[in-house]
Structures are given as structure tokens and as C-alpha cells.
Amino acid sequence: IKxxxxxxxxxxxxxxxxGLRDQAELxxxxxxxxxxxxxxxxxxxxxxxxxxxxxxxxxxxxxxxxKRGMVPPSVFIPLAERxxxxxxxxxxxxxxxxxxxxxxxxxxxRMRVAVNLSGYQLRQDDIVERIEGLLRQHxxxxxxxxxxxxxxxxxxxxxxTRRAFERLRDAGVHVSIDDFGTGYSSLASLxxxxxxxxxxxxxxxxxLEGSSDAQxxxxxxxxxxHTMGLRVVAEGVETPAQRDALVAMGCDELQGYLFAKPMxxxxxxxxxxxxxxx
Length: 278
Ligand code: C2E
Ligand code: CA
Ligand code: CA
Ligand code: CA
Hints:
Layout: H1 14-17, H2 20-36, E1 39-48, E2 54-65, E3 69-71, H3 73-82, H4 86-106, E4 112-116, H5 119-122, H6 127-137, E5 145-150, H7 151-155, H8 158-170, E6 174-180, H9 187-191, E7 197-200, H10 202-207, H11 212-227, E8 231-234, H12 240-248, E9 253-254, H13 265-273
Parallel strand pairs: 2-4, 4-5, 5-6, 6-7, 7-8, 8-9
Antiparallel strand pairs: 1-2, 1-9, 2-3
């Protein structure tokens, strides 16, 4: 089966993929950006497939480079992971998302806030304590906070990740398995991970219209997830046809450009409180 969008892999950016010297330079600038916290979070809503209410806002990291412009996370996050910067950056993401969540709550917006956790963060001994501390500090109920962890990270080093999943669950945090379907997990290994949500990778959603294989896979994932009591979110929904197919297959929540692109917190607040066409 052909996966469009390269199976969730990063796109090629000629400007960024250039020689080693450029990579070293970018790394140096990333270190500075991490120290000076030159990052922003954009938020993309997840929508309840039936009511079309906003259920959550996923925080997506943005680095606006003074000269290069917007450096995509697919370029700088792998770099940060390779060079030990992701701990610091990831901590800032959690703090900032909690701060934003508190602000939204005081304004009556009750959606969850979701952050993406890297494997490095999941292996930090005190990651759950850090998250719990920030949730307390910002008076956010843990079940209103989602940690998105990719299937491939969840399946590497299963002892450690399973323990982290369990501790997040015990803390009451909502755990989501991201990019599902690309990591070839077995049903049995998925069952051992206490998660609340499963996100079907964009590559399958993108293929829905053309490929009956993709349709069967998505249908099987939804049924399996529901059997295990997981909510199913489809990411990367771009067309009404994809939306309709996903709703017909029983997906619980939808996310994608069809509904909204990642937005500034202010824009999302307006969008979430606005009357939207259905
Ligand atoms: P992801 O977690 O799978 O996030 C979804 C990506 O798909 C986002 O790209 C989003 O902007 C994009 N997207 C959403 N809807 C659509 C759609 O309808 N069509 C298409 N073509 N794309 C859509 P983005 O923001 O560039 O992020 C890329 C990846 O970088 C994320 O994939 C995630 O793995 C990683 N990332 C982003 N922020 C963070 C972060 O704070 N921490 C960590 N560890 N990783 C992050
Ligand atoms: Ca993805
Ligand atoms: Ca995600
Ligand atoms: Ca994803």
C-alpha cells in the first residue's frame, strides 16, 4: 500500500538539508534559541466527530528563525533530539501549554490541551512528577491534559515506556498513541500500554479515497481500538470525503486542515467560541 505524505516522514527541505556546515550552524542557532526560548506554540483543534465541538487543542512547536524564517519541527526536533536539547525544549513546551491551558480555563474554554512528548522525555525519571507539578501549579485537572506519544516511541524500550505510560495513567493524565499504524505494533503489545486515545496516522487518512487497503486498515484500527476502550482520533483530515468516510467508520474525533490549521492561541480561542458552519 502506498502511503501518501511519505508515511508521516519529514518532507525534504533543500535549504535545511544542505551540507554539514549548515547543520552545525543550525545546531548552534538552535542552542541559542533554546536558551533564549525563541519558540512559540501553535494549537490545532481536535473536533468531536458527531457534535463538532472542540475537544482538545494540540500544541505544535514553532521556531521562527530571524533569518531563515519558519524552521519546521520536522527539521529541528530530530536535531534537538540528537544533540540533547529536546529535554530543555520539551520542558518549555509543557510549561507553556500548561500556562495557556490555565488562561483558557479562566476564560471558560474547557478543551483539553495536548503536547507531544519525545522518547527522551518519556525516559526522564521525573517526567511524571514534572507534569504533575505543573498541572497543580496551573490548577489543571490531569484528565484535561493529553500527552501524545508516537507509536514507534511507545514500542521502543517497552519496559521503560510501559512504566511511564502506567505512571501517567496513575497520575490521571490522558495518554494518546500518536501516528498509529506506521509502527507495526501487534495487538498484544498495544494492549499492554494503558492509553486513552489512539491517533490514526495521516498517511492512512490521506489514502482513504484511493485505496481500499487503507479503508480496511482504518476500519480494523477503529474496531480494535474501540474493543480496547480507546477513543480514536484521525489526523490530517483534508477533504469532506475523508471526513465522511472516517465518521462512517466510527472515528470519535477528527483533526486536520479541513477544520483548522494550527493557530495562535488567540485565533484558536476565537475559532473555538465562534459559531462554525457544520
Ligand atoms: P504530529 O504530532 O503528527 O503533528 C501533526 C502534524 O501534521 C503537524 O505538523 C500539523 O501541522 C500537520 N497537520 C495537521 N493537519 C494536517 C492536514 O490536514 N494535512 C497535512 N498535510 N498536515 C497536517 P508540524 O506542526 O509541522 O509538526 C510535525 C511533527 O513535529 C509533529 O507531528 C510532531 O511529531 C513533531 N512536533 C511538533 N511539536 C512538537 C513538540 O512540541 N515536541 C515534540 N517532541 N515533537 C513535536
Ligand atoms: Ca505525524
Ligand atoms: Ca501529535
Ligand atoms: Ca500525529
